[in-house]
Amino acid sequence: MPEADDNPNPYSPPAPAADLPEAEPGRMWSVEGGYLMLRPGAMLPPVALEGEGEILTPGMRRFAVFSGGKGILMFALPMLATIGWMLYSKIRLHGDYLWAGLLVIFLLLRLVRSQGGGLVNAMVWGFFPVAHLQAKARRERWVKRLTLLGLALLFGAWGILVVRRQYLAGLHYSARGNQRFQINDTLEWLLPTVGLALLILIAAAVWKSLKPGLRCTAYRNGWLYLRGVPDASLTLLAAKAGDERPPLRKRMVVKFYQHRLPWSVLLGPHWLNPWLLFWLAVFKLGKSPRLERLRFPENDYEGVPEADPELLARWHQETAGTGMASWTLASWQYRDSPQGDLRVCSLSFASPDWTSFASLIVTRLSVMQVYAESRLGMLQSWTEDGQFIVTANPPAFFAIPSHMDCVEMKGSLVKLLEAHARRTAGMTLTRVSGEKHLRELFKRELETVNAVYEAKGFQSAPEEMELRDFPA
Q1: What average pLDDT is seen over the chain?
Q2: For residue 20, what pLDDT is reported?
């Protein structure tokens, strides 16, 4: 049963369920002088908004841009207020209350901006190349590692210096030269360490700024001015700028309550991330709507001309030189999220006798500056007495129907097949008659899983909602 939403994406950042792609009436984008001009809330067709690559995935971007004279004032106000308070605290208060004043300034500015403050927060939806997002995510991880290393060296050197100064202050030297020796000895390791830390931090900052990507440079007359869109994409978007938007249509959706998920599912492999742990704790304990997402309860088989090329490449890589290389591609599908920031792609291969099926699933999330993937491989079979036998990579499922017998184990598809064959030995397996029959079985299993989620309180009952598709 290729169904990645059975294990909701653990990387999904807090996002209000009401943040659905909706836009103002009229023309939603235009191309002018190398700029892509967008209305806030615009939904763009499947054209790469940044970078290059053949495989695209939908994503949401939020731009915060200052508008008008009030915006310019709000841009300069934090700097002026900070410099003014630092000078006043140094001259009149002898440095007292410096940090308390800076905290008050920060909170007041946040309050002013939240009330308008000339800052425009606009969201747009479009498509991004998977290869570009993957490379960008790798670069972000290395930048983060270098930044943490530089800060660790800097604060470590400072901590050692403080401890050493306190130690030396407790000693009584009769010879001034002895003290001088201790100071010079300290500088011998302190200066190179601080220099190395600053060099690493500067290198990380420069590396991060080398490819700024998509950016908003201005907001005028209701239009966002975007830079960083490839020239080829600008040409395609210019040709489509006059097309009418797809009409609203009713879709069945369910609301998924992520704050009710187990900690292991929410955190995934990131349980050592203190920032993520803190915010998830706040949102989970407070049952925040920020951990609620809308999802479509059904897979989409329509309008999918071919299986995901990356999944196909992964299949051929894992099965090359094995008996699974001769299996038949039986089905493929995808599912987008109503929020327009997540896509689940899956494909299924059938064994020669059509009694066992290997499925590969990838979930791609692209929202603001976050890109994350989760991957799943599984072997599936149905028995004549109504059992659904699944052998899958962890983590696979956290709530399953009673007729599903699921075992999780690490390993490649070939190892999963070996384990699956041992589990199904002696069972009478259902021979699937073809692609249509397989889709019916997948649909039945998905409906059963949705019923379990609803019964256990993980998701709401399905309801109709008017949504707009992405332009063609």
Answers
A1: 82
A2: 47
Residue with token string 């929410």? 266
Average pLDDT over every residue of 355-377: 92
Instruction: Specify burial of residue 222 (Cβ count, 10 A radius: 0-12, 13-18, 19+).
Output: middle
Decide: 38 and 222 in contact? Cβ < 8 Å: no
For residue 79, how far is the Cα from the chain centroid?
32
Measured distance CA(105)–CA(410) in Å, rounded:
51
Q: What distance in Å separates the CA atoms of residue 433 and residue 337, rounded to the nearest whole number?
A: 31
- Rounded-to-integer distance, Cα 420 and Cα 392, Å: 9
pLDDT score for 84? 73
Contact assessment for residue 420 and residue 378, using Cβ atoms and an 8 Å cutoff: no
Which residue in this structure is represented by tokens 């590692």?
Answer: 145
CB 345, CB 362: distance < 8 Å:
yes
Give the C-alpha separation, 257 to 458, whole Å: 5
Strand ordering across the sheet containing 292-295: 292-295, 248-257, 463-468
CA 438 to centroid of chain Cα atoms: 31
Taking the model in full, what pTM does it have? 0.79
CB 101 within 8 A of CB 82: no
Where are any strands of DSSP class E within 351-395? 357-367, 370-382, 388-392
Residue 30 near residue 22, CB atoms below 8 Å:
no
- Encode pLDDT of 203-216 as tens digits: 888 888 777 788 88
Residue 23: what pLDDT?
Answer: 44
Calculate mean pLDDT across residues 361-371. 91
Task: Name residues whose C-beta falls within 8 Å of residue 370's C-beta, 6 or more positions apart in sequence.
Answer: 11, 13
Which residues touch 337 (CB under 8 Å, ≥6 apart)? 293, 294, 295, 296, 343
Confidence band of 453 (pLDDT split at 50, 70, 90): very high
Read off the pLDDT of residues 275-308 as tens digits, 9 standing for 90 and up. Answer: 778 888 888 888 888 889 999 988 766 656 788 9
Give the CB-side neighbour count of residue 20, counting CA atoms within 13 A. Answer: 18
pLDDT in tens, 415-449: 999 999 999 999 999 999 999 999 999 999 999 99
Distances (CA, A) of 27 to 42, 88, 168, 451: 9, 51, 72, 41
Q: And the tokens for 446?
A: 């998905």
Give dist(CA 261, CA 11) in Å, integer. Answer: 13
CA atoms lying within 13 Å on the CB side of residue 470: 20
